[in-house]
Design brief:
This protein is mainly β and 109 residues long. It has 2 helices and 8 strands; from the N terminus they run ββββαββαββ. It comes from Apatococcus fuscideae.
């Protein structure tokens, strides 16, 4: 996924289909902004960096940005949504469906 190309020292691990990241410099990773209907929503480095245990004695980090869909499509999953309160309105009319997004009360950033 192209977004991982701007994360310093991100290395693609084809066996798992993820990008490995250095856990040592997460604070220096870029903040990404997602634009939805003209509003900007920031995704901080700690939001998209996942710490994983590689064994009982070592751990590493991977990027939460993964893509199975070619092009510019991103699925906004738990790394993004955990900091936002979302409300979904759907009454059977797909043209009137709405999603409301607001900063979660427990969000730290």
């Amino acid at each position: 996924m192209l977004i991982n190309a701007v994360i310093p020292r991100a290395v693609y691990w084809s066996d798992a289909g993820v990008y490995n990241l250095s856990c040592d410099n997460v604070a220096r990773f870029p903040t990404f902004s997602v634009v939805l209907d003209g509003s900007y929503f920031d995704v901080q480095p700690l939001d998209y960096t996942l710490k994983v245990n590689e064994s009982e004695t070592s751990s590493g980090c991977t990027s939460a940005f993964v893509g199975a869909i070619p092009g510019q499509t991103i699925i906004l999953g738990a790394p993004f949504l955990r900091h936002w309160f979302t409300s979904y309105s759907f009454d059977g009319d797909k043209d009137a469906a709405k999603i409301g997004i607001a900063k979660a009360a427990n969000a730290s950033s």
